[in-house]
Amino acid sequence: MKAQATSLNILLVEDQQSIACNISDYMEAKGHRFDFASQGKQGLTLALEHHFDLIILDLNLPKMDGLEVCQQIRKQANRHIPILMLTARDSIDDKVSGFTAGADDYLTKPFSLQELEVRCLALSRRHLLQTSDILTIGPLTIDRQRKQVSRDDKILDLHAMGVRIITILAEAYPQVVSRSMLTQKLWGDEPTESDAMRSHLYQLRNILDKPFDYPILKTVHGVGVTLEVKNEK
Question: What CATH number should be reported for the domain holding residue 172?
């Protein structure tokens, strides 16, 4: 696992050639491999047609901006590809927009190339852990193969939909998953009635949170749903 994490196959989607060259020169000297796109649509096509360990995605792109590229990758890709978003915008609203679109991390320009590599390696390591059969976040353990969820070593009596919801949130952790994204992942292009999501989240909260000391399932009003844990190991 360490060997894979130290040499990454990266897609860089950046329209400013000088920035793209600086990033690639530094990262390739560290042993990482790069593919490039200077436009959003081109970046989306490469992301969907090739296997990358990580995508570095600029927010301001011609043809299709970074938020739209990120959203489309999350909707169309058949696996979760870690996405690090680059932007000159540093407001809280801009960061929330990036995470809501599906970004895993966010780096504001100007940035240090050393920090960029550290962020990339951290994202890659986290992704490798999350794609194993057993996913652990604080007191929460999800066995994806057995479709089983436990908290504080107690197996939770969840229905299949509850297991799917908690797995989606855990795979996206710590980012917030928008209700529209959650709906898309659960029902695809055949959305169910509007109260169904509320009902499933209510049932999940009763089993996941009520018997325990503090709630893990958190609603971020106007944004979506996320997991919030204490004393992570």
Answer: 1.10.10.10
List, for residues 118-148, the tens digit of each pLDDT value: 889 888 877 766 556 788 888 999 988 888 9
Tens of pLDDT along 64-75? Answer: 999 999 999 998
User: For 183-217, what is each residue's pLDDT tens digit?
Assistant: 888 887 676 666 788 899 999 999 999 999 999 99
CA-CA distances (angstroms) from residue 211 to 19, 225, 228?
Answer: 51, 20, 16
- Residue 191's domain comprises 134-227
pTM beyond 0.70, yes or no: no
Does residue 232 lie in a domain region? no
* Dihedral pair phi/psi, residue 41, rounded to 5°: -65, -40
- CATH number, residue 105: 3.40.50.2300
87 in Cβ contact with 94 (< 8 Å) = yes
Using DSSP's 3-state secondary structure scheme, residue 168 falls into: helix
Query: Is there a single domain that holds both residue 72 and residue 141?
Result: no
Closest CA to 71 of 83, 61, 86, 87: 83
Supply the DSSP string of 40-79, one letter for each residue. HHHHHHHHHHS--SEEEEESS-SSS-HHHHHHHHHHH-SS
22: in domain: yes
**Whether residue 120 sits in one domain with residue 140:** no
In what order do the strands lie in the sheet containing 224-227? Answer: 177-178, 224-227, 217-220
- Asked if residue 42 belongs to a domain, the reply is yes
Total number of domains in the chain:
2
